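@channel sequence for tomorrow's demo:
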Amino acid sequence: LQNVVKAMNLSGIELEDLVFSGLAAFQCLMSDDTKEQGIALIEIDDNFTTLSVFYDNVLRGVCVEQKSVIALNVLERLKGEMNRIRDGRPISKIILLGSSYVHEDFIDNVNTVFGIPSHAAYIKNIRGKSKDITNPTYLTSIGASLYGFDARARAYGHRELRFGLIRKATRRVEEFIDEYF
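structure tokens (generated this afternoon):
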């Protein structure tokens, strides 16, 4: 993480804040009415798996495995950690996300191991011109953007953000394109 921050700073991009990927993903996965339920997110990458458990719109616990969740024994360990975190409270669903492809057979395995309905992630309340914007691969990045926007909106108010942030973002994109292309 320190290397990423250093690289960003050296490239001229000033970071204001960092956000955990589970919080970022939660930002664009859940609608306001589902954020109150018990939700588990399982982020699957080639080299690691992260379990994030949310209740009442709050991250209640995290478990990180240094292996891909595709191995069945990793699923069993995650189930034990989820049961410890939830402490008897119900989980309404498990959402699978990340850069690794989630196929139907794997979703069936998750349903069997956890005994809780699960499905692949899809982005809520995001629209754009590109059909790829709803691709689960971009979910955490889009969530991080929304997280940052919401934080700024709370700090500065929506009106100033609407114009100032758009102007600043446009200028940054233009500078990036001019410099690298």
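heads up for whoever presents: The radius of gyration is 18 Å.
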